[in-house]
Amino acid sequence: MNKVTCVSFLLIVLLTLTLGLDSVYGQAPSFSIRGNVTEADGTAVGEGYTVKAVNQRVSGWSIYTDGKTRADGS
Fold first, then answer.
1. Against a cut of 0.85, is the pTM above it?
2. In this structure, what DSSP letter does residue 73 have?
3. How many Å from the N-terminal Cα to the C-terminal Cα in the chain?
4. Which string of b and e fits 17-38 if b means at least 16 CB within 10 Å?
């Protein structure tokens, strides 16, 4: 095996292991959450409420995690 073939093989093995381990632990590169914020009686809260996402598994996200509700509660 020459050096290029050996390095290519090792790179493929490392990439496969890395992607495989992410699947095993159930981590995804991104996700989205959709829904409406409602009062206890089911009516939409209206606009102006802040919705904050909290990641319980990682100490910090590199994205903006706050969002504001609209008049319909979405």
1. no
2. -
3. 59
4. eeeeeeeeeeeeeeeeeeeebe
